[in-house]
């Protein structure tokens, strides 16, 4: 079921005509436009406790929630306020001033153009549904594979790998039906963050090792084309708050997200585990609500684009039931140090996955209403257009049949 993509359309159209915001970029904080009040004379309180409400004043910093008929609804930036006590005001949009930031307010020139929609019919998606690993091929009815977690589909859609509930390690299933499932033993047995290389013949994963006091997680790999091959160690010493994001475009490097609050880094490692380079997340994003669960996935089509799934401020309708921050998907251009929000405010978006051609994105979405809803799988083009609800599911991985 297609759904619209209302990323503050009226607000963004207005922002484009503000002289101070060049190149259609604006300062966003935690996923929303962040502006300063220049004239508070017509501001009225519309939400939040009236008793002790701080008066809006010139210079007050606010998050812009919506704009209609020249009037804006804003939320005062109160770092110590609880969501239930947040103060919101209504005032003329002309009484707000913005400044340039790293977030584009409309589709940037560097965003990929939508590809052939017929290609989605060849996509094969592995995902979780409760405790089951499921596979969805094009528009066909999804089928159950086994109980497990962390599914990974090879880029050519011939293989599915997952961590089984029983026995540990990894199971690799031939989706073409030409070979029996293969079990790969690991020690320790718990694995996660499973990824195929671009050539579909190599598999890599993270092994949880060490103790809670001293973690020594590692990344291992296996050449699936060699039947007698054993796993080889690629990198060691991963801390608990670092995550393996997958292979680089050339298949000769690994991407690791190292979470460190305001100093989080993306690190590119060689297959020998040595650091080839790193870049602070702040180099291409405005302020975000970062966590160790964030995703930063390199585009399979180009080394300059990155798909980010990170924390943002939830909408007012989400705050009564969402136990954590919101989450949204951003397309980031490493060359220009800019980004573009892909998903609408009304959808909590997480667990993104690229198609091998870099033209489509699958992810998990949770609507702001009804509260405590069911996570669904979504598909969209790499520029955020064509958002489509695919039904119940979570943690997708996708390949495309030739």
TrEMBL record:
<dbReference type="InterPro" id="IPR011659">
    <property type="entry name" value="WD40"/>
</dbReference>
<dbReference type="InterPro" id="IPR011042">
    <property type="entry name" value="6-blade_b-propeller_TolB-like"/>
</dbReference>
<protein>
    <submittedName>
        <fullName>Periplasmic component of the Tol biopolymer transport system</fullName>
    </submittedName>
</protein>
<dbReference type="Pfam" id="PF07676">
    <property type="entry name" value="PD40"/>
</dbReference>
